[in-house]
Sequence to fold (402 residues):
Amino acid sequence: MTQENSSQVFRADENGYFGAYGGAELPPHLVKPIAQVREAYAKAANDPEFQAAYRDLLVNYVGRPSLLYFAENLTREVGGAKIYLKREDLNHSGSHKINHCLGEVLLAKRMGKRKVIAETGAGQHGVALATAAALLGLECEVHMGEIDVEKQHPNVIRMQLLGAKVVPVSHGGRSLKEAVDSAFDTYAADYEDTMFCIGSVVGPDPYPSMVRDFQSVVGKEVKEQMLKAEGRLPDALVACVGGGSNAMGLFDAFLPESEVALYGVEPAGEGLDGQRHAATMAKGSAGFIHGMNTLVLQEENGEPSPVHSIASGLDYPGVGPQHAALRDSGRVNYVTCDDQAALAAFSQLSKSEGIIPALESSHAVAYACQLAKELDSDKIVVANLSGRGDKDVDYVAERLGL
Ligand SMILES: *Cc1c(COP(=O)(O)O)cnc(C)c1O
Fold:
């Protein structure tokens, strides 16, 4: 990768572009609210006081640093490179999502907002955001398609217990797409009082950069922890990619370390030949979604395609624009893992290490095992265990006939 090329994919330009991807293409009523967020974040990012307050929350509330765990049993079973797991599942509230939700709510508070607003599909983002809002004393409103409200009942209850207001969206397909529009419209009408909080490295600038920055603590910790444990950097890092926040968090500190191979794992669902997958890098094309130019799984008319993954946190028809740029530059390898392989990794890690991973994270574990097997025993692979699997046990039990 040339130097010019690398600066375009490591950091966005002044218009929020990573090479050909990103930007902020917004309907007129959202231009001013999002510009306000961009300006506020640019200041906060360079303010030691804001950074110290954020850092304090990560240490004293989330419980950071999370462990970098040598999975010795799994390594022995697989046979090959050493497998380490970055234990984001041990964070308070059970996944990496709390890292960026706390950052976003802290920014909202600094901007003098009374309330945060978001959409949620499976409910994981809504729960993490409701958690952060409860702690920092802001109101929280989460828009959710009626179909998802029914399917994700436990997360609806969690959000309500945390003091959030869940708004069911009953028009159109009553799913995530309608929830996004509904949440954005409510936000635009009330933005003096409210901040919109996005749940991954997606959406208009500044969100892809801001969410990455909040998550980058993950990779910084891995670097330090690995130097301490092994006296050197790992040979490969592996993370699952839905929108791409846990992957960007792990990768960011390693982007300039060209000897460390980076792998993003997309969900191949029931196979790449049909429509039952969400492998945007493998099968998508350049397009537009949620205020950004990026790769999209889309129909001929430009509408996002219906997508599927066994892991509800991965079934997104777009992907963070920085990932699209990192793919084109060749710095990150994007690969896939199907439902069956993720399910097998879920079972294997549970039995071999006593760690029940989220189905999302199981995609990374599956690929890390495959990679480790091909490598010599003096190599080191780190997989991001983005979340715990408690939320998935009922579904997995059904699938496995338990
Ligand atoms: C939401 C979620 C993901 C997918 O989101 P990214 O932005 O791609 O990281 C992965 N793992 C877990 C546990 C999640 O909750």
